Amino acid sequence: MLFSHIAILTGAGISAESGIPVFRSEDGLWEQHKVEDVATYEGFMRDKTLVHNFYNKMRRELKERKPNAGHIAITHLQEEMAKRGGSVTIITQNIDNLHEQAQSHDVIHMHGELNSVLCEHCGKRFPYFEDTSVESVCPHCKQKALRPDIVWFGEIPYHLDEIEQALFKCDLFIAVGTSGVVYPAAGFVGLCRKMHKPCLEFNLEPSAVNSSFTRGYYGKAGTTLPQFVEYLLQKDSLPDKL
Ligand code: NAD
Predict the structure, then answer these.
(1) What value, to the nearest 5°, has the Cα angle with vertex 189 and ends 153 and 29?
(2) Residue nearest to atom 29 of ligand 1 (CA)
């Protein structure tokens, strides 16, 4: 195979066709809320109930969401690469579980997960599928100190060591459905280019860091990704366009 180890960074755009709204709508709101109210620690301190309810709604809605052809194409690529002695690591900024629902493995959630909570008192993170509130009790330390296990703006993403290893190891870097404005994820393409790795962007339109990519495929990821995966697996080369 032309490539042995592929790292795929996914963002909100890969889940858009599954009915989960993306983050940066043109008015700068996330599901009708200001980002600073629902995606910062300061916002949580100002109004914990509002923030709990915001993620409760998304967690409930996630139960109805299903992976789309883009998630499934990545799983197919992962399975085929494994048969050929290679690997695909998925680094996702998404807090949904659609890669897992599509039976992908090696999924690194750098911004946390909707189906997880973090105890501010004892620091434990654990799976959680129900609504949370200021009254929710941590089963480990028995304190009322649970918060959504989401990496908010100004907080340090999870698994950065593991991500760095995947970026160093890969011989192809792919970014799907990410706007290229949220760091450090937006900087991964620059790091890979410094190491002279080919970097591909899949998006509806060129992202903020588009000039760093070697090639871009524009259109819905649910259409372009399956076409790309078939081409790569059959021809063992990169398509000029899709
Ligand atoms: P973003 O919302 O900032 O950008 C989404 C990008 O996807 C845009 O560049 C858009 O052009 C592109 N896009 C939209 N529909 C697409 C499609 N069908 N096919 C291909 N591309 C498409 O997303 P981001 O860069 O991931 O940053 C937002 C942050 O918000 C993330 O860190 C994440 O934590 C959070 N978030 C997560 C979810 C989720 O879990 N599904 C949803 C919204 C926001």
Answers:
(1) 35
(2) 23
